[in-house]
């Protein structure tokens, strides 16, 4: 099975503040660029989570996905921490509510529709689709601010 390759990024200016997210989806010779944002107060972590959610939800059928993120928060959350949070009733090991639980639940549901393999990539290190996802996130932020 040929994987869908997805690169995602998100961020805010300032953090917290208005934010944007971007995603690049590649399947064979097809490329889809996506972006969006929030003009109100959000956070880098919320935008980093929104990008893979939107990308996975855009897929029209169950797929093998190689998902690249420059966010250790997203990668560690989905691959290491999420199962424990679910077992603990969405509380951290310190018995505090999990931040961004709404988005973590939505990401889990999106992942459940596919076979997702997660990869971390260093941001701003010249990886072309990570750089493109970063530019798309900036575009999403600008568009959100322009329409507010």
Quick structural gist:
This protein has four helices and five strands.
Textual characterization of the structure:
It is found in: Cytoplasm. Mg(2+) 2 binds at residues 9, 134. One of its GO terms (biological process) is DNA replication, removal of RNA primer. This protein is an alpha/beta fold. The protein has one domain (4-147): Ribonuclease H-like superfamily/Ribonuclease H (Nucleotidyltransferase, domain 5, 2-Layer Sandwich). It is built from four helices and five strands; from the N terminus they run βββαβααβα. It has helices at residues 44-58, 72-87, 101-112, 128-147; strands spanning 4-12, 17-27, 30-42, 64-69, 115-120. It has a five-stranded mixed beta sheet. The longest helix has 20 residues, at 128-147. It is globular, with a radius of gyration of 15 Å. The model has no long low-confidence stretch (mean pLDDT 97).
Structural class: alpha/beta
What radius of gyration results from the CA coordinates?
Answer: 15 Å
Strand portion:
25-35%
By CATH reckoning, the class would read Alpha Beta
Distance N to C terminus? 42 Å
In CATH, the architecture is 2-Layer Sandwich
Read across the widest sheet, the strand sequence of neighbours is 3-2-1-4-5
Mean pLDDT across every amino acid position: 97
Number of spatially distinct domains: 1
Multimer state: single chain
- Tell me the name of the CATH homologous superfamily: Ribonuclease H-like superfamily/Ribonuclease H
> What's the SSE pattern?
EEEHEHHEH
Count helical runs. Answer: 4
CATH topology: Nucleotidyltransferase, domain 5
Assign an overall shape.
globular
Helix content: 40-55%
Largest sheet: 5 strands, mixed
Main location: cytoplasm
Binding site for Mg(2+) 2: 9, 134
GO molecular function: magnesium ion binding; nucleic acid binding; RNA-DNA hybrid ribonuclease activity
Catalytic activity: Endonucleolytic cleavage to 5'-phosphomonoester
């Amino acid at each position: 099975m040929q994987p869908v390759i997805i690169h995602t990024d998100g961020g805010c200016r300032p953090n917290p503040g208005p934010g944007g997210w971007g995603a690049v989806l590649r399947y064979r010779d097809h490329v889809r660029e996506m972006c969006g944002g929030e003009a109100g107060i959000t956070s880098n972590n919320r935008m980093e989570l929104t990008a893979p959610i939107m990308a996975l939800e855009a897929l029209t059928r169950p797929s093998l996905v190689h998902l690249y993120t420059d966010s250790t928060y997203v990668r560690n959350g989905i691959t290491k921490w999420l199962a424990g949070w679910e077992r603990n009733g969405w509380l951290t090991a310190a018995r505090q509510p999990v931040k961004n639980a709404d988005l973590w639940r939505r990401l889990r549901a999106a992942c459940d529709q596919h076979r997702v393999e997660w990869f971390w990539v260093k941001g701003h290190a010249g990886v072309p689709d990570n750089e493109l996802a970063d530019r798309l996130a900036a575009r999403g932020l600008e568009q959100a601010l322009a329409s507010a």
